[in-house]
Design a protein that fits this description.
Jelly Rolls, five-stranded mixed β-sheet, single chain, about 650 residues, 4 domains, Rhopdopsin 7-helix transmembrane proteins, elongated, alpha+beta, six-stranded antiparallel β-sheet, 16 helices
């Protein structure tokens, strides 16, 4: 690759890459034209102005308090509107005059042009606006909402009228006073109704909508696989909504410099979130970018925190310049990240990219306006609800092929589901067979040891006794029959490997009942188990089978009981325990009788499956109780369907 030549994405050729860039440029042009020709006139075009009544003889004074005593001490200086005075916190009293040839019967509309935290207005000595508090250090911030004030004809008079406004600042050091708009109320309210809606009701709708979207984005953080993207969507929407809400929050729990810190932090979060949102959206985020932008954001926040909490009239200006400068720099970084992605990767999300670029453009226009002349049009702030709606529309348009045909879509899902089910069934069968074989091999090895040490030893003893003729024929026959019966039981237990517990117990009953009958023992069988007990595998079934087998064999050999009762049931919450009780009416065990290997093996088998064995023996008989917990069976995972 030659110097200066951009790398192509894998599998892409240069003509295709150029076509993709061309589509992006066309989409950007279309989106920009749509905003500036459609949305901008709706939100930002100046409404027709009514015929206004001019104000004159405007004067301004610094007063110590917003009360009659403070007004009486005012020393006015003439000012030309618009005017600005510095530096707060403090109070300013502005006095103007306007002349009426006749009092309008429907009163006047007054739209102040003021930059202050709060203000009260009186006309001809009578208060017409007294919203919230003026008293420092904790005034309210009713100066942010922009409303059309009504001046009743009862306070007006023909000739010269006096308009007085008392302003307060607790944080921002500047008092800004522009030319107020005075006009007949009916005409002004009609012409300015749309602008009033944009500045008030639309604002509430917008940040409420934004907070709802932020809540949905928070759910995406929990549920979505693209958590990085969801996190930055959440941060962006939350910061934007809270910053917009800032202008309507007239009585926050903090004031002064801390309120400005809150505002600047939210303002700074927006460009940081945009850059990282774009980076995550590309699908190949640069790991260092999020750390770098967050470090820049934290550094800037700490810087203007120290500036705003320090003394000096220039602290606010420096903090504002710093915030706006960082916003412009991060906006440029976001544009560069976008361009690099589309120059090096093949991506068909052109409309979404065009909307992202529009958002960054609007953000940078606002930051540059604040940076250069201290005023911003609020493009990004006001237009974001339209963009929130546009993003899902662009996403759906890009993925419309998925909804081309509902039947086709359902057929695709059905095929994928069947393939996944077949794969899961095959894997389950393979795992079950492996478990069965492993259990069988382990049991065979154990039985070989038992046969060598147990049955083998018995046969050798009988052989030596028979050769020496030291055992009666009848006793030899009985002993050999017991050995044969033991071998049959071992073979029966091997046949149960891989069966369910219900099937294994049914097989055991069919094979042991004739032997019990031949021994003169009546069998009472009570089984309330379902056909299969989920959660018990081949290993558990085999161990339970061998315990029951050993207990019944002991009854046949030693109990001399006329009956044996076997009860099988499930108990506990949600039937999570299998209980098997074997009770006889025989002679019982002697109190000082030692436990043999058979009982030790039974206890060990019960413990190996997490169960417990309890034996209660009296002169009236012996009861063996086996309890085995049934593990909960997890629900099968839902099939993962790929696009």
């Amino acid at each position: 690759m030659q110097f200066g030549e951009l790398p192509l994405p894998p599998g892409a050729d240069k003509p295709e890459q150029l076509r993709a860039i061309g589509r992006l440029l066309l989409a950007c042009i279309a989106v920009q034209l749509g905003f500036w020709l459609v949305i901008n006139p709706i939100l930002f075009d100046s409404p027709p102005r009514p015929e206004v009544i001019a104000v004159s003889n405007t004067m301004m004074a610094t007063v110590p308090s917003p009360d009659p005593a403070g007004f009486d001490s005012a020393k006015f200086k003439p000012v030309t509107l618009p005017a600005s005075d510095c530096c707060g916190p403090g109070y300013r009293l502005v006095r103007s005059e306007f002349t009426l040839d006749a009092v309008p019967p429907d009163g006047l509309a007054l739209i102040p042009s003021l930059g202050s935290d709060n203000y009260h207005i009186r006309v001809n000595g009578q208060w017409t606006r007294q919203d919230g508090r003026l008293m420092l250090p904790n005034p309210t911030y009713h100066g942010n909402p922009k409303t059309i004030l009504y001046i009743s004809p009862s306070v007006l008079k023909t000739g010269v009228n006096r308009l007085e406004t008392i302003l307060v600042r607790a944080g921002v050091p500047y008092f800004d006073v522009g030319k107020p708009m005075l006009a007949p109320y009916a005409k002004a309210s009609e012409l300015l109704a749309k602008r009033s809606f944009i500045l008030n009701e639309y604002k509430v709708i917008s940040y409420s909508f934004g907070l709802l979207a932020a809540a949905l984005a928070f759910l995406l953080i929990v549920r979505s696989q693209q958590k990085r993207f969801a996190v930055w969507v959440f941060v962006l929407l939350l910061a934007w909504s809270l910053r917009y809400h800032y202008y309507s929050w007239v009585d926050p729990p903090f004031s002064g410099s801390w309120r400005l810190v809150y505002y600047f932090v939210l303002t700074l979060c927006i460009p940081v979130a945009w850059v990282n949102l774009i980076d995550a959206w590309t699908g190949r985020p640069w790991r260092w970018l999020s750390w770098l932008t967050c470090l820049i954001g934290v550094g800037a926040a700490l810087s203007f925190l120290s500036l705003l909490t320090a003394s000096g009239s220039g602290a606010y200006d420096q903090a504002s310049m710093l915030t706006n400068g960082v916003g412009i720099a991060l906006g440029l970084a976001g544009i560069v990240r976008f361009l690099w992605h589309f120059l090096t990767q093949s991506d068909d999300r052109t409309w979404e990219a065009a909307l992202f670029l529009l958002c960054i453009t609007l953000m940078m226009i606002d930051f540059y306006g604040e940076f250069s002349n201290g005023s911003a049009r609020g493009f990004l702030q006001t237009s974001i609800p339209f963009l929130i709606i546009a993003f899902p529309v662009a996403f759906i348009a890009r993925n419309i092929r998925l909804f081309r045909s509902m039947n086709e879509f359902n057929e695709m899902l059905t095929v994928q589901l069947h393939e996944r089910e077949a794969e899961l069934a095959e894997n389950y069968a393979r795992a079950a067979e492996l478990a069965r074989r492993e259990t069988l091999v382990n049991e065979r090895q154990r039985l070989m040891r038992d046969m060598h040490d147990g049955i083998g030893g018995q046969l050798m003893s009988l052989l030596f006794a028979s050769r020496k003729q030291a055992i009666p024929q009848a006793e030899l026959t009985t002993s050999l029959q017991q050995v044969i019966d033991e071998l049959r039981l071992i073979i029966d237990s091997l046949d149960t490997v891989g069966e369910t517990l219900g099937t294994a117990l049914a097989t055991f009953r069919a094979r042991i009942e004739p032997r019990l009958s031949a021994a003169g023992i009546a069998l009472l069988w009570k089984n309330s188990l379902p056909e299969s007990v989920d959660g018990l595998g081949p290993r558990e079934v085999l161990q339970i089978f061998r315990i029951v087998q050993e207990a019944v064999t002991n009854v046949i050999k030693h109990a001399h009981s006329p009956t044996i009762e076997i009860t099988i049931a499930q108990s506990g919450e949600n039937a999570q325990v299998v209980t098997i009780t074997i009770a006889d009416a025989g002679e019982g065990r002697a109190a000082n009788a030692a436990d043999g290997h058979g009982i030790s093996n039974m206890v060990a088998r019960a413990q190996s499956v997490g169960g417990a064995l309890h034996i209660d023996s009296t002169s009236a008989g012996t009861t063996v109780v086996l309890t085995v917990p049934v593990p909960a069976v997890p629900a099968p995972p839902a099939p993962v369907l790929s696009e």
